[in-house]
Amino acid sequence: MMYKREYRVISPERGGHHAVIYWITDHTEESVRFLRHLNVRIEKWSTHKHNVLLGSEKATMVLKSLVDPIWPKDLQLLKTDSEDVRNIIVLRDPFNLMASRLPVHGQYIHILHPKEFVKIYKKLAREVLGDTMYLTNLTFVCYNRWVTEENYRRDVGGELNLVGSYHEQYQRVVSTGGGSSFDQREYDGRAGQMKVFDRWKVYRDDYSLKVVARDEELMDLCSQLFGSQYELLISIRDQILR
């Protein structure tokens, strides 16, 4: 089926992409068909809704998501006849992202060896930085900055042709994916109060975070992705490796 617009959101699992997706759909005037987890390989997701209409009318826009992609093989799942295609990569800092993938309250366990996680993260980072160029019309969303910086949301929202008050901090905690790994939907309506940048503290001694912290190439890529926030990432890394 051909849509007027197509947005593809690509991210590591638990990377904040659901919040970004619903921020997009909440600030568009179009009716959206949301096709989620096109490349999912985890049996537990088989009962979740993968095809959701967000709006009361026939969809004129489709939004697709890929998580933990096998790069670039999984891009074949994004073949389209849509007129206007925008690719969006969402990256959260690797320490809080890794922590959010580990077991919390016995839920949302995204088992992936940390070295495989690092491999996926680095491939997406290289695509953002232009070291590889599999995607055209690419928008990068730095999740950390998207959460904390109004001007950043304003710039990204403008690039994505959003409407309304998209510059304001997004306060919803969506039910898709069960909400936050740590808080579920407790902070729905006040998401800005969640300590999304302190998740690493729970697992600071975990082997997985140490693998992430020891990868020098990953840290070099982060220095190019996170700008002024990179100093904070260095501080987190040093505390993990103590």
Structure description:
The protein is an alpha/beta fold and 242 residues long. It has one domain (5-240): 3-Layer(aba) Sandwich (Rossmann fold), CATH 3.40.50. 33% of the residues lie in helices and 14% in strands. The protein contains 8 helices and 6 strands; from the N terminus they run βαββββααβααααα. It has helices at residues 17-26, 94-101, 114-129, 143-148, 150-159, 207-214, 216-225, 230-240, and strands spanning 5-11, 32-35, 51-54, 61-67, 84-91, 138-142.
Give me a quick take on this structure.
It contains 8 helices and 6 strands, in the order βαββββααβααααα. The protein has 242 residues and is an alpha/beta fold.
- Summing up helix and strand content along with how strands pair, one would put the structural category as alpha/beta
Overall shape? globular
Could you name the CATH class?
Alpha Beta
Helical content class = 25-40%
Strand content: 5-15%
Low-confidence stretches: 41-50, 180-184
Q: Kindly give the count of domains.
A: 1
Alpha-carbon distance between the two ends: 54 Å
* Succession of helices and strands: EHEEEEHHEHHHHH
Number of helices: 8
Instruction: Find the count of extended strands (DSSP E, 2+ residues).
Output: 6
**Strand neighbour order, sheet with most strands:** 3-2-4-1-5-6
Major sheet attributes: 6 strands, mixed
Query: What is the alpha-carbon Rg in Å?
Result: 17 Å
CATH architecture: 3-Layer(aba) Sandwich
The name of the CATH topology is Rossmann fold
Quick check: average pLDDT? 83
